[in-house]
Amino acid sequence: MAVLRAGLIGLGMMGRHHARVLRSLDGVELVAVADPGGDPHGVSNGLGVLASAKELVAAGIDMAVVAVPTIFHEEVALTLAAAGVHTLVEKPLAPDVEAARRIVKAFEDAGLVGAVGHIERYNPSLQSLRARLEQGELGAIYQLATRRQGPFPNRIADVGVVKDLATHDIDSTAWVTGSRFVSVSARTAYKSGREHEDLVAAVGALEDGTITNHLVNWLSPMKERVTIVTGEKGTFVADTLTADLTFYSNGSVPTTWDQIAKFRGVTEGDVVRFAIPKPEPLMTEDAAFRDAILGKRSDVVTMAQGLATVGVAEACIRSAQQGVTVSVDELV
């Protein structure tokens, strides 16, 4: 396997984990790190801490991971694209659709691999869920609901809960179902005194007719990460905190209790929690990025998909501001 010279810019919470993973990946050598704010977690491991993307490029890198705050994504990504560096940008791709479009165009024009770090795609529970849905184990899909709740992370200052947290669910919903969002209706709240929203409730419609529902906040003392898919044959529940996938099948045993039997819905059937391999999602993500650069088959989140996710997020914010349902096609 060819050895790719890797650079990392942004040495905060996500950057430190990327540094660890990049150092452990076969065929990859982490040769340069950069962060104008220094190295708060001590991950440079003997490498000099550079101050900018230009200095990172000057170190002679083939690939880069961008883990800087969202407001700097466009500037850093365009610098790397101009230098011919394959790049993975942490989610969201950009703070707005216009910036995301410019990033997508720069990487497409340069013929480079551009990826987005939507790490939930690589959670074992969602990977298994998607495979089972593709195999028809649920039959027709009716509804997908997510809940992503927890305390406020002090490290996030430049975007609200929609673009920081809800983009996880927007991306994974479209990916798991294989269908894009066509419209959203959302409501937001501002409860913590910040300029950005810290709570959102959104209802979406996918192109294939699936109805989605997303509850996301930074206001809950407990942490929850759940995706529930209901369909023709039952319900899948993916818990991405524990990486568990459970299937609740529709019952096949006739109901003899008259009062319940009159209800024409489904009944409770068998419950199965699947035993699935549980590799670290970040390891799977960075390995997929490496493989894409090497021309191997891989499942990266493309920058075009990252752009679509930013568009849905902006549709949620616009919907909340205007009190109307917003067509995603109007924004992307």
Count of extended strands? 15
Give me the strand/helix succession. EHEEHEHEHEHEHEEEEEEHEHHE
CATH topology of the largest domain: Dihydrodipicolinate Reductase, domain 2
Mean pLDDT: 94
Number of helices: 9
Q: What structural class results from the helix and strand content?
A: alpha/beta
> What best-fitting shape do the alpha-carbon axes yield?
globular
Q: Which CATH class of the largest domain?
A: Alpha Beta
Termini, distance in Å?
38 Å
Radius of gyration: 21 Å
Q: State the share of residues found in helices, binned by percent.
A: 25-40%
CATH superfamily of the largest domain: Dihydrodipicolinate Reductase, domain 2
- The amount of beta strand, in percent, is 25-35%
Main beta sheet, described? 9 strands, mixed
Known CATH architecture of the largest domain = 2-Layer Sandwich
Low-confidence stretches: none
Could you give the order of strands across the largest sheet?
14-13-12-11-7-10-9-8-15
Annotation keywords:
single chain; Rossmann fold; Dihydrodipicolinate Reductase, domain 2; nine-stranded mixed beta sheet; six-stranded parallel beta sheet; 32% helix; globular; Gfo/Idh/MocA-like_OxRdtase_N
Q: Can you tell me about this structure?
A:
The protein contains nine helices and 15 strands. With 332 residues, the chain is α/β, with parallel strands linked by helices. It has a nine-stranded mixed beta sheet with strand order 14-13-12-11-7-10-9-8-15. Strand 9 and strand 10 form a beta hairpin. Helix 4 packs antiparallel against helix 9, helix 5 packs parallel to helix 6 and helix 6 packs across helix 9. The longest helix has 20 residues. Pfam families: GFO_IDH_MocA, GFO_IDH_MocA_C3. This is Gfo/Idh/MocA family oxidoreductase. InterPro entries: Gfo/Idh/MocA-like_OxRdtase_N, Gfo/Idh/MocA_Oxidoreductases, GFO_IDH_MocA-like_dom, NAD(P)-bd_dom_sf.
